[in-house]
């Protein structure tokens, strides 16, 4: 796990949710020189690497979000996703995706601020040897 993922309150990950994963892999691979690696998490996922380092991920828009416009989303690391989800609601935000585990990665949620902007919050699991 890199240092950005451990830094509380810092952006740590970027992820594209799209209707055309294959097309996105070609586009961003050629545009930015990213190497793409397909993997299976709890769904098919593509890891994009720049210079051998993880740069972001690409995945299909899940069926429960049918109709969503393809978009990049950012993740901010927090110490406690569950507590941050509650705090966001107390501050007038909405919880769009409740705290959910991602096996071998961590726990995340998606919030919407009072103005309508969305953001994912995540607490990563410690990787062996960290």
Set out the fold topology.
Elements: H1 3-6, E1 11-18, H2 21-32, E2 35-40, E3 44-50, E4 53-60, E5 71-77, H3 81-90, E6 94-102, E7 106-112, E8 118-124
Parallel strand pairs: 1-4, 5-8
Antiparallel strand pairs: 1-5, 2-3, 3-4, 6-7, 7-8
Structure description:
By secondary structure, the chain is of the alpha+beta class. It has one domain (3-124): 2,3-Dihydroxybiphenyl 1,2-Dioxygenase, domain 1 (Roll). Helix content is 20%, strand content 45%. A hairpin with a 5-residue loop joins strand 7 (106-112) and strand 8. The protein is globular, with a radius of gyration of 15 Å. The protein starts with a helix and ends in a 6-residue tail after the last strand.
Helix content: 10-25%
How are the strands of the biggest sheet laid out side by side? 2-3-4-1-5-8-7-6
Strand residue percentage: over 45%
Distance between the termini: 7 Å
Q: How many beta strands in the DSSP annotation?
A: 8
Q: How much is the average pLDDT?
A: 91
Q: Give helix and strand order, one letter per element, not per position.
A: HEHEEEEHEEE
Tell me the name of the CATH homologous superfamily. Answer: 2,3-Dihydroxybiphenyl 1,2-Dioxygenase, domain 1
**Sequence stretches where pLDDT stays below 50 over 5 or more residues:** none
Q: What is the CATH T-level topology? A: 2,3-Dihydroxybiphenyl 1,2-Dioxygenase, domain 1
Overall CATH class: Alpha Beta
What's the gyration radius in Å?
Answer: 15 Å
Tell me the overall shape: globular
Integer tally of domains: 1
What's the CATH architecture? Roll
Structural class: alpha+beta
Largest sheet: 8 strands, mixed
How many helix segments?
3
